[in-house]
């Protein structure tokens, strides 16, 4: 198996022993079968077991290993090592408190997700069978329901950096529209009320970093635009 | 013992499909429930399931739960318990419709009903021809299901303890279960979660093998905890090797690809499954397809420069079908195999995928040792063995298992909690002390074995000695080797001693769970001297007396492995369904 050496510069911070964060350089020997950035981080952890990061499915569907890679948010498990300029600079997702190394405290992110009531609301009695939905109506959910809550988008958004407590952020708003767009959900008005606020929705200034970084190629800006349209229509 | 104790009606370990479904029952019943998970719930491995969840809705063509039951019993190679299988298949339409009501974004047919696709081993009219039974949300069914269940739990105000790792089960002197010892990952602080009822929904342990479709978190924590607490593990010799893992990467490619018309081809371009399963062809049961693939490769008809894989071909399908029904597969194929399946076939190889065995339960989700219920202890999902999958699981029955047994165990817990005394009994401390000692040993270890050294040795041993085809001599040697690995695990050492989100410590604790699963697997496999379902040995070949190498006279029974002295016991298979006639033993062919 051919090997190659890859150079990294990794953000390190353990609050127990570090007064402040620092960048540490590493060289890692990789096999030809190591193709993704996560493969390299796993190899690195064998050499230095203190390097800390989250990971699970290693196929881009669980959303655990979001990090800032050469200045851009992404998932380590689906990022090709060979596509990256070396030394590869790895930092935690920006804008959230760092717990340790690449592990951030995601409380604020999930709080915003929860604030949009992320579940289908329908208080009409459920039929004995499935609620019917046409393929066309179901198609409205494509590009919305696939979100993996990795936070790449919200932590690349300047509006979220400034107001993480007030602005729902692209992930939360994408989810909000996912339920508005679902023909089975009967709470569209309440959902719009919930977002009608100078901050919660309208802090989106269509910078579109979210669209740029989404590892699932979703488009939160478009969903936000649709919510804004509905707001306008409702006022008219 | 100076460990803080938190008290609940119920504690659930694991927030994948089974844990979330059970939590919903308990939360909606108003019981004080704690759900512990190593990861944020939507990161649980249910998220990676792709193809579908089975239910005989009959939305596209006639179907019946009895046919589903027949297929499941046959798929299990008659090792499944027929009461549990009947229960699961009868409940399937209810729990799937319920999931739709929770908001699951199923694909739809033109008439608005849930879209269903064919899947391996699912047939109409007692094995006649493939039937559309797999209810699907594109090829992201697990993701859609896990998120829908989490969302419904948000609505129900379920209390989650996210990034907590359970360390050990707590039992009193009589063996009744009192809860778990658990560590908060961010601080490394250890607590006892005491409860009237405890559910393990911790998933599988595919990481005992070197090559696996499983996530890093699938480390058999529930199995390790149960084994250390004296609970046996059932049928651990039965591991499913999924036919289509991406060659080299191990990432799963759903059987739904073949359900949509995908074909497996060897180096000659031949559709070789026609020779192995003339009726079901590429949609035969997973064990059958995996063995056919390995046979093709072993006989020199593999593809690629090393002739070490076969090809999964969907280039003949309409690109629009691929884009709408298999978008995730296309994405995985491009990212991990470097091929766009619209244009070129995907290199695939059988890869460890699912554990049919687990903690023995009945169909109510109660943990049982032989016929004896372990009071206060429940298990559901991949960690449990009800046993509905027997010697080989049918595709889409795992997501169904989560829903049916998550719900039924939740209901059993509610009944148990309501009948229990109002106040919790005094906490027994022996297990708590043992758990603390385990953590202290790890933190104090010097001149020990690096975690990676022991883990790699375990994974290599399992891969080489206990794979798709098994050999008498290799199994015997495998037992010796895995016991050597166990002695390495006893001295594993970590360099990082930080208390703050110490993932090195967590990986070490996980390895202590994995090694229990590896031992159970190798020892149970070595002892079972027949071929059945996913367990096929060279010394139990296909003969007229024992078709497919199956020996019902001696081996129509469940294995129970006990950690204590690696003792094996056996218990009979329940061939008696709840309401219908027994599905009689038959030679299995597709």
Automatic annotation (TrEMBL), chain A:
Pfam families noted in UniProt: Fer2_3, Fer4_17
Record-annotated 2Fe-2S ferredoxin-type domain positions: 4-96
Known EC number: 1.3.5.1
Domain of life per record: Bacteria
Reaction catalysis annotation: a quinone + succinate = fumarate + a quinol
Pathway the protein contributes to: Carbohydrate metabolism; tricarboxylic acid cycle; fumarate from succinate (bacterial route): step 1/1
Stored PROSITE patterns: 2FE2S_FER_2 (PS51085), 4FE4S_FER_1 (PS00198), 4FE4S_FER_2 (PS51379)
Keyword 4Fe-4S: yes
Top EC group: oxidoreductase
Iron-sulfur found in the keyword field: yes
Cofactor: [2Fe-2S] cluster; [3Fe-4S] cluster; [4Fe-4S] cluster
Keyword annotations: 2Fe-2S, 3Fe-4S, 4Fe-4S, Iron, Iron-sulfur, Metal-binding, Oxidoreductase, Tricarboxylic acid cycle
Cofactor binding notes: Binds 1 [2Fe-2S] cluster. Binds 1 [3Fe-4S] cluster.
Domain 4Fe-4S ferredoxin-type as annotated: residue spans: 137-167
Family per record: Belongs to the succinate dehydrogenase/fumarate reductase iron-sulfur protein family.
NCBIfam families, per the entry: dhsB, PRK05950.1
Protein name: Succinate dehydrogenase iron-sulfur subunit
Organism: Chitiniphilus shinanonensis
Automatic annotation (TrEMBL), chain B:
Pfam families, sorted: FAD_binding_2, Succ_DH_flav_C
Biological or metabolic pathway of the protein: Carbohydrate metabolism; tricarboxylic acid cycle; fumarate from succinate (bacterial route): step 1/1
Catalyzed reaction equations: a quinone + succinate = fumarate + a quinol
Intracellular or extracellular location(s): Cell inner membrane
Region described as Disordered: 528-553
Cofactors demanded by this protein: FAD
Protein family (similarity comment): Belongs to the FAD-dependent oxidoreductase 2 family. FRD/SDH subfamily.
Enzyme class: oxidoreductase
Family annotation (PANTHER family): SUCCINATE DEHYDROGENASE 2 FLAVOPROTEIN SUBUNIT (PTHR11632), SUCCINATE DEHYDROGENASE [UBIQUINONE] FLAVOPROTEIN SUBUNIT, MITOCHONDRIAL (PTHR11632:SF51)
Stated name of the protein: Succinate dehydrogenase flavoprotein subunit
Keyword Amino-acid biosynthesis set for record: no
Its EC number(s): 1.3.5.1
Membrane-topology descriptor: Peripheral membrane protein
Keywords attached to this entry: Cell inner membrane, Cell membrane, Electron transport, FAD, Flavoprotein, Membrane, Oxidoreductase, Transport, Tricarboxylic acid cycle
Residues covered by the Fumarate reductase/succinate dehydrogenase flavoprotein-like C-terminal domain: 455-590
InterPro entries (alphabetical): FAD-dep_OxRdtase_2_FAD-bd, FAD/NAD-bd_sf, FRD_SDH_FAD_BS, Fum_R/Succ_DH_flav-like_C_sf, Fum_Rdtase/Succ_DH_flav-like_C, SdhA/FrdA/AprA, Succ_DH/fumarate_Rdtase_cat_sf, Succ_DH_flav_su_fwd
Record-annotated FAD-dependent oxidoreductase 2 FAD-binding domain positions: 9-399
NCBIfam families attached to this UniProt entry: sdhA_forward (TIGR01816), sdhA_frdA_Gneg (TIGR01812)
């Amino acid at each position: 198996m051919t090997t190659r050496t890859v150079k990294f510069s990794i953000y390190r911070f353990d609050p127990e022993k570090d007064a402040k964060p620092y960048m540490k350089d590493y060289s890692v020997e990789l096999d030809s079968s190591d193709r993704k950035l996560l493969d390299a981080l796993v190899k690195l952890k064998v050499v230095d077991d203190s390097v800390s990061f989250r990971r699970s499915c290693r196929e881009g569907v669980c959303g655990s290993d979001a990090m800032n890679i050469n200045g851009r948010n992404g998932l380590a498990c689906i990022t090709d090592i060979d596509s990256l300029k070396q030394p590869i600079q790895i930092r935690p997702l920006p804008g959230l408190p760092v717990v340790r190394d690449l592990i951030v405290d995601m409380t604020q992110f999930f709080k915003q997700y929860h604030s949009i009531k992320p579940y289908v609301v329908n208080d009409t009695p459920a039929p004995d069978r499935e609620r019917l939905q046409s393929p066309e109506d179901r198609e409205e959910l494509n590009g919305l329901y696939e979100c993996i809550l990795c936070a790449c988008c919200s932590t690349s958004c300047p509006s979220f950096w400034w107001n993480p407590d007030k602005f729902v952020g692209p992930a939360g708003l994408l989810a909000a529209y996912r339920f508005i767009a679902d023909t089975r959900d009967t709470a569209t008005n309440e959902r719009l009320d919930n977002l009608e606020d100078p901050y919660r929705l309208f802090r989106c200034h269509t910078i579109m970093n979210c669209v740029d970084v989404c590892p699932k190629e979703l488009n939160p800006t478009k969903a936000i635009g649709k919510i804004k349209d509905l707001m306008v229509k409702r006022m008219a | 013992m100076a460990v803080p104790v938190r008290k609940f009606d119920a504690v659930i370990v694991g927030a994948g499909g089974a844990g979330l479904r059970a939590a919903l029952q308990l939360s909606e019943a108003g019981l004080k429930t704690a759900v512990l998970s190593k990861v944020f719930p939507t990161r649980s491995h249910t998220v990676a399931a792709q193809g579908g969840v089975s239910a005989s809705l009959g939305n596209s063509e006639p179907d019946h739960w009895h046919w589903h039951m027949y297929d499941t019993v046959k798929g299990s190679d008659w090792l499944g318990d027929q009461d549990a299988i009947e229960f699961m298949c009868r409940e399937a339409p209810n729990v799937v419709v319920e999931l739709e009501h929770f908001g699951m974004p199923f694909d739809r047919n033109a008439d608005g009903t849930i879209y269903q696709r064919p899947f391996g081993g699912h047939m109409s009219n007692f094995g006649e021809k493939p039937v559309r039974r797999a209810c699907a949300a594109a090829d992201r069914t697990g993701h859609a299901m896990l998120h829908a269940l989490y969302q419904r739990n948000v609505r129900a105000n379920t209390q989650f303890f996210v990034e907590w790792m359970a360390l050990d089960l707590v039992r009193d002197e009589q063996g009744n279960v009192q809860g778990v010892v658990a560590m908060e990952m961010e601080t490394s602080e250890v607590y006892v979660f005491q409860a009237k009822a405890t559910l393990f929904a911790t998933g599988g342990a595919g990481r005992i093998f070197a090559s696996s479709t499983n996530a890093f978190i699938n480390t058999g924590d529930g199995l390790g905890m149960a084994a250390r607490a004296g609970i046996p593990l059932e049928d651990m010799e039965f591991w499913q090797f999924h036919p289509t893992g991406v060659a080299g990467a191990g990432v799963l490619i759903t059987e739904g690809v073949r359900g949509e018309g995908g074909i497996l081809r060897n180096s000659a371009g031949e559709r070789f499954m026609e020779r192995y399963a003339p009726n079901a062809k590429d949609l035969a049961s997973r064990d059958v397809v995996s063995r056919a693939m390995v046979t093709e490769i072993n006989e020199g008809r593999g593809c690629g420069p090393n002739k070490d894989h076969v090809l999964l071909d969907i280039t003949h399908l309409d690109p629009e079908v691929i884009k709408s029904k298999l978008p995730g597969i296309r994405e995985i194929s491009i990212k991990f195999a470097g091929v766009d399946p619209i244009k070129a076939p995907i290199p695939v190889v059988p890869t460890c995928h699912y554990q049919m065995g687990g903690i023995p339960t009945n169909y109510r989700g109660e943990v049982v040792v032989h016929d004896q219920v372990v009071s206060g202890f429940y298990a559901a999902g991949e960690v449990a063995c009800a046993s509905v999958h027997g010697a080989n699981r049918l595709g889409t029955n795992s997501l169904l298992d989560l829903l049916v047994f998550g719900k039924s165990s939740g209901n059993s817990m509610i009944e148990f909690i309501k009948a229990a005394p109002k106040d919790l009994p005094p906490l027994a401390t022996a297990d708590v002390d043992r758990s603390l000692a385990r953590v202290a040993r790890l933190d104090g270890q010097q001149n020990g074995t690096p975690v990676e050294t022991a883990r790699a040795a375990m994974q290599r041993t399992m891969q080489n000695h206990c794979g798709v085809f098994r050999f008498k001599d290799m199994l015997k040697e495998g037992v010796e080797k895995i016991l050597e690995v166990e002695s390495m695990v006893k001295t594993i050492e970590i360099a990082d001693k930080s208390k703050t989100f110490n993932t090195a410590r967590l990986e070490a604790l996980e390895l202590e769970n994995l090694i229990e699963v590896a031992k159970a697997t190798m020892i149970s496999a070595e002892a079972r001297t027949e071929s059945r379902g996913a367990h096929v040995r060279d010394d139990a070949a296909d003969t007229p007396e024992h078709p497919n190498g199956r020996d019902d006279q001696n081996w129509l029974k469940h294995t129970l492995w006990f950690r204590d002295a690696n003792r094996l016991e056996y218990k009979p298979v329940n061939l008696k369904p709840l309401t219908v006639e027994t599905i009689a033993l038959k030679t299995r062919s597709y």
